[in-house]
Design a protein that fits this description.
Strand order of the largest sheet: 1-2-3-4-5-7-6
Number of helices: 9
Structural class: alpha+beta
Radius of gyration: 20 Å
Strand content: 15-25%
Number of strands: 10
Distance between the termini: 35 Å
Length: 350
């Protein structure tokens, strides 16, 4: 059962959400088994044009199924992302895949349209671990709330149709589109202008803030929608949803650095990036996190795609978070640091 305000909110949209799910049937994200796919495309063309206005290029996606069966899809692809579009950061950026919805009925991709694929970034073993750790961040937030983006792991073979790049197989994952997510929970993506996180449901803000604190991520803002989407209920209530966790301390990619405006120097250092609040403000969120501690630790422990060193480091990092929230005195220190920082008139973050 999902926590905090969801009992009331889900009840209010239950009649909306269920028909939307039923009309799509089983979705890509209902299964947990990693997909096995091949992407055939002009890789040089994909990597050579990474502007936001880039046109899609044709590609073929082949999905391999049990008993030797496979399905082939004619798709279009283009490079996606923000920081990861920079070739100095990622040699191989995330990919936006554009399906033909009319051809997807009764397939694994039924109901999809445009969907993002998080890729390996660089052809190094460590980057396989970074992909998995970001995937685990998404899965962890799924434990906390339905108002989160679902993900599906994949083993992807990249095949260059021009023969300029060797065939390579890497780990990646699909991220649920905002259209699919909003249909699933019976809300709409909001483009309403907001000036602060106070415009959103505070139970949701507290949970998002504590989750980002758990994974050591400060690369987000609600009011500017930086790595945050906002959904809106018919009654006008707004709920923020986080995404993109490659700058989190849990993941610790080599290119991740905290903002120079923050009082931390490494992403592994935790900073509570929320408005100055009393500890009671976070109590429901704390209870939610505690209720899913075993789920998260078991998830990491059971992820065989991570090497053992990365598993242990991730588990220790998450356990450190739980030590903090288990101690009101320790957590209060982080609240105090946050309050002092954001109340400083020289701070230009707000």
């Amino acid at each position: 059962m999902k926590p905090f305000f969801l009992h009331n909110l889900i009840f209010g949209v239950f009649a909306i959400a269920i028909p939307l799910q039923e009309c799509h049937g089983q979705t890509l994200f209902d299964e947990t088994k990693p997909l096995e796919i091949t992407l055939s495309m002009d890789i040089q063309h994909l990597l050579g044009d990474t502007s936001s206005a880039t046109d899609y290029i044709p590609a073929i996606l082949i999905e391999y199924k049990d008993q030797g069966k496979k399905s082939e899809y004619a798709i279009k692809v283009k490079a996606a992302g923000n920081t990861r579009l920079n070739e100095n950061v990622c040699e191989f950026p995330p990919i936006r895949i554009n399906f033909k919805k009319s051809e997807l009925e009764n397939t694994s991709f039924a109901g999809q349209d445009k969907i993002k694929l998080i890729t390996h970034c660089r052809d190094l073993d460590d980057f396989e671990n970074y992909v998995m750790l970001e995937y685990l961040a998404y899965k962890s937030y799924n434990f906390f709330t339905d108002f989160s983006y679902q993900v599906r792991l994949a083993k992807i073979t990249y095949r260059d149709i021009s023969g300029n790049f060797p065939e390579t197989t890497k780990t990646g994952f699909f991220v649920e589109s905002d259209e699919q997510m909003s249909a699933r929970v019976g809300v709409k993506i909001s483009d309403k202008k907001i000036w602060s996180a106070d415009s959103c449901k505070q139970e949701a803000v507290a949970l998002l803030t504590l989750f980002e604190f758990m994974i050591g991520n400060t690369d987000w803002w609600i009011h500017t929608r930086h790595n945050v989407d906002i959904v809106e209920f018919p009654n006008g209530d707004l709920i923020p949803l986080p995404y993109d966790f490659d700058y989190a301390g849990l993941v610790e990619t080599p290119y991740s650095v905290p903002s120079k405006l923050l009082p931390i120097t490494m992403v592994r250092q935790r900073f509570l990036k929320g408005d100055c609040r009393e500890i009671e403000y976070y109590q429901d969120a704390i209870n939610t996190c505690k209720a899913h501690k075993a789920d998260i630790l078991n998830l990491i422990e059971g992820t065989t795609q991570l090497d053992r060193k990365s598993q242990k480091t991730a588990i220790n990092y998450i356990e450190d978070f739980y030590k903090i929230i288990d101690s009101p005195e320790q957590f209060q220190k982080f609240i105090k640091t946050s309050c002092e920082y954001f109340s400083n008139p020289e701070t230009q973050l707000k």
